[in-house]
Automatic annotation (TrEMBL), chain A:
GO biological process: DNA repair; error-free translesion synthesis; error-prone translesion synthesis
The organism of origin for this protein: Pisolithus microcarpus 441
Transmembrane segments: none
Protein name: DNA repair protein REV1
CDD domains, per database record: BRCT_Rev1 (cd17719), PolY_Rev1 (cd01701), Rev1_UBM2 (cd19318)
Family: Belongs to the DNA polymerase type-Y family.
Highest taxon, organism lineage: Eukaryota
Residue ranges with Basic and acidic residues bias: 310-319
Comp. bias intervals (Polar residues): 1-14
Domain (BRCT) ranges: 87-175
InterPro entries: BRCT_dom (IPR001357), BRCT_dom_sf (IPR036420), DNA/RNA_pol_sf (IPR043502), DNA_pol_Y-fam_lit_finger_sf (IPR036775), DNA_pol_Y-fam_little_finger (IPR017961), HUWE1/Rev1_UBM (IPR025527), IMS_HHH_1 (IPR053848), Rev1_C (IPR031991)
Subcellular compartments: Nucleus
From TrEMBL, chain B:
Domain HORMA: 41-241
Organism from which the protein derives: Pisolithus microcarpus 441
Similarity comment: family membership: Belongs to the MAD2 family.
Record region (Disordered): 194-222
A GO-annotated cellular component: zeta DNA polymerase complex
Polar residues: bias regions: 211-221
One Pfam family linked to the record: HORMA
Domain of life: Eukaryota
InterPro entries named among the record's database cross-references: HORMA_dom, HORMA_dom_sf, Mad2-like
Name the record gives this protein: HORMA domain-containing protein
Amino acid sequence: MEHTNNASNKQLINSEAKAKAKRSRSPSESPEDRGQPSKTTLHRLNGLENDTEIYGASHFGEWGEYMQRKRAKLQIQNTSLEGPSDAKSDIFRGLAIYINGWTRPSVQELRKLIVTHGGVFQPYLDKKSLVTHIITCSLTPAKIREFKHMKVVRPEWLVESVDAGTLLPWTDYIFYPGGRAEASQGHPVGQTTLKPVSKSTPPPSPQVQVNRSESQSPASRSRSPSRPLYTTDPSTYEDAVRVPGYAMGQSNEMAERVMADPQWRAAHTSIAPDFIEGFYKNSRLHHLSMWKAELRSLVMEAQERAEREAFGNTQDRDGPVVQEKAGAQSTSTTDVSMGGVEFTLRSPTKNKGKCKAETNERVFMHCDFDCFFVSAGLTTRPHLRGKPVVVCHSQGNQGGASSTSEIASSGYEARSFGIKNGMSLRQAKQLCPSVVTIPYEFERYRDLSSQFYTILMRYADDLEAVSVDEALVDVSHGVASRRAAAPFSVNDYALSLAETIREEVKATTGCDVSIGIAENIQLARIATRMAKPAGLFHLRRDDVQKALEPLDIDDLHGFGYSTREKAKEKLGTANVGELAKKSKGQLCEALGKGTGETLYKAIRGIDDRKLESDKPRRSVSCDINYGVRFENNEQTETFIYRMAEEVARRMSDISVRGRSLTLKIMKRDPSAPKEAPKFLGHGICETFNKQTPLSSIHGQATNDSKDIGEHAWKLLKSFNFDPRELRGVGIQIQKLEKEGMAENSAQARLPFQPAFRAKTPDKAELVQVASGPPQIVVQPPSQEEILQRADVTAGVEEAPTHDIPSFSQVDKEVFDALPEDIREELENEYKRRSKSPTLNVPPPVPAERRPRIVVKGTSTDVKRITRQLAPRSKTTISPRKSTLFAKRVTRVGPSSVRVAEDELQELGIDPEVFAALPVDVQREQLITARHLKNGGALAEPKVLKYAKRKTRVYPKKPPPLASHPQHPFLKQQGPKKGDKLYFTRTDDVQRVIEAWVENFKEDPPNQKDVEYFSKFLVQSAESSDTGMEKTVAAMRWWLVLLRRHWEFYEHHDLLETEPVTQRMTSEKIGRAWWTAFREVKLKVDAIATKRFGGTLCLK
Amino acid sequence: MSPVQHCGFELGQGLSRDRRYRKGPSGGPTVHTMTDTLSFNQTLRAIAEFIEVAIHTILYVRQIYPPDLFVRRKKYDTPVYQSRHPALNEYISGAVKAVTDELVLGNVDKVVVVIKDKDHLALERFIFSVKNMIQVQSYDKDTSVQDAMTPATLSQYFRSFLIKLTMIESQLGLLEQHEDNSFAIVMELNDDKVPSVGQDKNPPPWVPADQQHTTSGASEDSQLHLLRAVDTGIISLSLAVQESGKKFQKFVSPDPKEKGKEKT
């Protein structure tokens, strides 16, 4: 019993608790509020009858009661807020306001404002009709949609209305959802793969990202508002502006010149067959990212091994930490990869590796080579020490002053001239003409790097491979043990450990490293800045503020150019010291929640990030944006497939398969020159990304180059870009799975038309298919029989490969289960076939690909043939006809005779041969064989029947005959006696009239002649509209002739001025002609009036 | 003659009956090439299409609507003008469809585009005169008619029609441009024929026309320009322009000599 009551009781308790909580939070709490509110208040509010109605127990099954009461209680609270004493104004009367989300001023303040000024504060929005306005500072997209028909206003409306003492128009304060707040969020992630460009990451050129830590020492940093960016090939206009000396709109003339040479193109751009290999052999970025990935996985393996071994026998701790696999050295000369190197973590104890040391004091070291490429190069070139050395592709005087080759690394001597990483060699030469270039030596870098890591491994509790020349190491334990060893020494144990490491690295590799030491990763990185060059620096907790103060945001790891710009714009400063004074809220508001919070901590030297030593690889990719120049789609496709091979190779190297593929395309910005300022570079580009799920034919994750290529090419095609505009292509595979895993988890795909699916058809092949007309066999009736035979044999041959099974072989159940449209199609097809039972029209070869054309072609074909087979009449005649046809269809329906195979064998017929025969022959054969077997006579009623059907002949109706109006003709005496000339054509008639007029220039026209012409013209006009046209033309010509000779008399009335003399004056002749003309005209007009109304105009 | 004027309002309901694309009972359309002679349905469709094109051109040439309402297009290898106004286009195509329905039955004598002034007095009539020369059985509607014209020739004729139509402007007396001229499409049927009732429930799209809009209402002094005529052997078609006497009374004839002559 008690149990049943429980629910409602609990609810009540809850509601009261909440109400109390709310009450206690409200700033002005009158004593009255605590007690029961007066009845008058209640009545005024919601018309509830009494307070027990509100504060009493909820009733069982009373839906909505809870909320209703809650609302009432809150309103009671609000009215108490209002208070009689400070009833300020009524400016908000009639308003019911709901406040959405976080606002400034706070909800409590706003609520007070609303309530004290006569408005109603609605705490819930469950009934939108109750609310007149919504106050908000920010809305989620979903809410924007939800509220789009409501009055959404900024809180300033209330505040300023109160200030003004009157209700300001809310329309001035409409809330407009601005740019998405998320745009400012999202901090750049450490580069894990070789990414060419993505618009979201602040430094869009990867070169910059990689070299940033080296290039900008705090001392040399310029404080210009727009910081110069050093790269030779920026891909956006924003970046291009920041690159000093970058001729943005300028086309590289040399590139244009060489690109004009197709042979050069074929050999040196992406069209070249070995382009990808060449590209990767020479791409520093490729090596860097590849090594990084490899180092990471090596580190990971080392840790795993360390953990495993922790449970086994203790190893010799001073044993070799690097085990070069046999033969690795020899292969690595050509293949510059980390393959063959194996790290061993020094102390496989329980609190090493993944189970991090739990010492109170964490010590992180950030170890970084000083200008790695240069110092690596100098190890074999000691004579260059002290000279301004840079590493770049372009060597010596090659390329000369105009070289756009990018400087990957510059020595400190070179830096003192102002040379920066990412500059072009040309720029560097301008700054320092004596600059010395040395080439890349990837093998050396690899070796040095592995040595470097080997040493670090020996001291590290945990290690994160940042790049070849840079690592983050957790050395907490090492330091602690040193302290334990010499507890009373005043030395800085961390510093002394770092010194040991530094010396060891120097001794092994001959290169200097700088080590920054601090209590977390962020600070360690900053400490390294202080340590450089070739030094150590321990950033202690006490010095943190001092060290951080002069820095800019983008000196902090994880914050880039865009964050800096944003901070400057919104907070007025990018200086860490200044920003330290800002509240967390301000930072969050300006930079977005995530970035703001991280920055807030970072500024205070707090960084709780962990070393990412065991972060599994997320993606494998292959990007090429140098030398990408295509002329047509075929080249692009080939290239894509080649890139897919590269990606596939990388994936199988680390034995993973992927489920998702992203295609990144850089397309020349329409406003950018055809040839980028950087020789064969990508120039300013538009970047496009598209993602697609990736799967093999069996629906599993894949690393097959064919699958990858197919998917990538499909994506690229979907962009529909001009291949000549492409400047960069990247294929990235995500959702990686370890090979061998999840093999069976995937749902297999049904093998629909596997032959077609397996490979994208060749372009050429497609064209061929398209141009090849469907095989339509049109048979002249005479050759019918012969050709039919020929067709039958052809059909037999083709049948097993291209034909659908005969109707009798179709599983009825399966057939019924097919989708309606497919079933219909099949039915039609079978109908079509059964209509022409004897001729098995072979479908043309490309039937599967171009079904439409085929059906169309053959259907007309069939129609024609059936007509000839049964030439009774056109098939189009009557609906009754079709029923007759239908009957025939059912009779001849099955396209093979049903007979058991055993029986056939018994009869001595090869079933296979039998199946290939046309139905009627099958039947015939079967009957004959059966009869022969039974020894009976051969009766052939069926054959007769067949013949009968064939001989039934319908008379074919003649096609309709056109009827042309009979045109009257002008009959004349021919040149010879008895000859008659008939004139019907307009110009002939005109010629006759002209002759007539010319002959009677001296005489008035003969009345007989006039009648003769008049009769013709009238008849003609009466006969048809074309006749009328002729009449008009003739009359018009007559009129012209008359005007030519007697124009003067045209408007003289003949009757009025009847001449007395009998002399044949020209006047009389003229008048006679005009009279004749008018006579005819009247007659013709009469016809025209009858037909159209009005008179003919002969103008 | 039973003159019947087309009423735009009721057109919308009649639109659904589009016979022009109805297939013959055979199910598949007969394939015709340009060298085959015309079939009845082809002729019907061609004439209907031509009338539609011509109406657009008439409206442009006679400037019933501002010229910028029209776009220049190519049809029958000659430039024509087509209205861009959807409502107008719908009215015209609806009217032509309705005409086509009657044309199938062979009832139509004339289709008249009447240009009216603001008082609805007919100023000009553009008369499409048609005559069904043969009766074709329903099953032969898609069969090539022996001895008939070929589609190519017919299309050349239409071209000539349209050229004449655009040229006639120079011969016709000017219409006063500032007036609110309007137009109507009138169908005149053969004697003792009334517009057929459609198979569907919709009322027929036609209403009886104003007598003076029809050719039978043409006064004695109206002038007829016969533009062109063609005999396809199936349906004959001619196009004439009639300037009404009203127009001559309204406007001074540009050629007084001509006018005097016509008085006789």
